[in-house]
Amino acid sequence: MSQKNSDGKRSARERLQEQRRKDESRAKRKRTLIAAVVVVAVLGAGAGIAALVANSGGGKDNKRKTSGPVVAPQGAIGKDSLAIPVGNQAAKANLVVFEDFRCPGCGQFENSFRDTVHDLEGKGQLKAEYTLVTLIDKNLGGSGSLNSANAAACAQDAGKFLAYHDELYKNQPPETDDAYGKKAKLLEIAGKVEGLNTASFQKCVEEGPHNSWVQKSQDAFSKSGHRGTPTVILNGKSLYDDPTHPLTPQKLRELVAEAQKG
C-alpha cells in the first residue's frame, strides 16, 4: 500500500492528535522565545523588545478587558460557575470539554464528533460541560479567543449557546488569523443562528461583560495540569491518554453505552 493511500485512511482522531502535537510544539517555541526576550529586555535592550513581550499572550489590552467583575453566563455550573452545560444533566455519561474557538485542534474535534455528540445528547445518554479558554490569545497574541468566548457566553444568556458554539467552529478562521478579535465578525456569525443577533446580544458582545469570567476559566485551566486544547474527558477519563486506541465516533458511542450500564 502506498504512503499516500495509508495517509488517506488515517482516522480523524489521529489527525487531531497530530494537530495537538503541532500546537503544543508551537506553544513551547513561543514560550521559549518570550523567555529569551524577557531576559534581553531586563538587560536594557530597549522599548521595542519590551513591546513584543507585552503583546504576547494578548497584551495589555486583554488585561484591561478582563479587569472587571466576574459575571458568569446564565446557567453556568461547576466550581466558580466556569462550565456551560449542554444536554440532559441526568445522563450518566458526562463529557467535559476545554476549548478555545481559535484552536484548530478544537475545530477538528468538533467538526469530526459534532453529529455523534449531538445525537447522544438528543437521546438523553450524554451531557456535556464546556469550559472556554484563551490559550491561542496567550500563545500568539490577539483577542479572538477572548472575544469569541465572551460572545458564546452571551449566546448562553440568550439560550442559544450550542447553536452559536457550532457556528463558530464551522466558520473558524486559521489559527494565525485573529478574525474573531473583530466583534463585527462575531455578530456576522450570530446572524446564522435564528433569533440570536438581537440588540441585547449585540450589546453583550460589544461590551464584554463576561470577559473576566473567561479569564478566570483560563486561569483555572492553566492550574489544572491539562496540557492543551482540546482537552476532552468522559466520566473522569481523558480520551487522549491512549494514542494506540484513537477515539472514533463509534468508540465514543461504545464508551457512552458502557456508562449507561454503570
Question: What's a quick, concise take on this entry?
Answer:
Helices cover 55% and strands 9% of the residues. The chain is of the alpha+beta class.
- In total, the number of strands is 5
What is the strand content?
A: 5-15%
What is the topology, as strand order, of the major beta sheet? Answer: 1-3-2-4-5
Structural class given helices, strands, pairing? alpha+beta
Percent of residues in helices: 40-55%
Give me the number of helical elements. Answer: 12
Description of the structure:
With 262 residues, the chain is an alpha+beta fold. It has 12 helices and 5 strands. The chain has helices at 3-8, 12-42, 47-55, 59-65, 104-122, 135-140, 144-157, 161-170, 183-190, 199-207, 211-222, 249-261; strands at residues 84-87, 93-99, 126-132, 231-234, 237-238. A 5-stranded mixed beta sheet has the order 1-3-2-4-5. Helix 2 (12-42) packs antiparallel against helix 3 (47-55) and helix 2 (12-42) crosses helix 5 (104-122). It is globular and about 45 Å long. Mean pLDDT is 84; it is low at 2-6 and 31-59.
List the main descriptive attributes of the protein structure presented here.
262 residues, alpha+beta, 5-stranded mixed β-sheet, 12 helices, 5 strands, 55% helix, 9% strand, globular, disordered N terminus
Task: Draw up the topology in text.
Elements: H1 3-8, H2 12-42, H3 47-55, H4 59-65, E1 84-87, E2 93-99, H5 104-122, E3 126-132, H6 135-140, H7 144-157, H8 161-170, H9 183-190, H10 199-207, H11 211-222, E4 231-234, E5 237-238, H12 249-261
Parallel strand pairs: 2-3
Antiparallel strand pairs: 1-3, 2-4, 4-5
Helix pairs in contact: 2-3, 2-5, 5-12, 7-8, 7-11
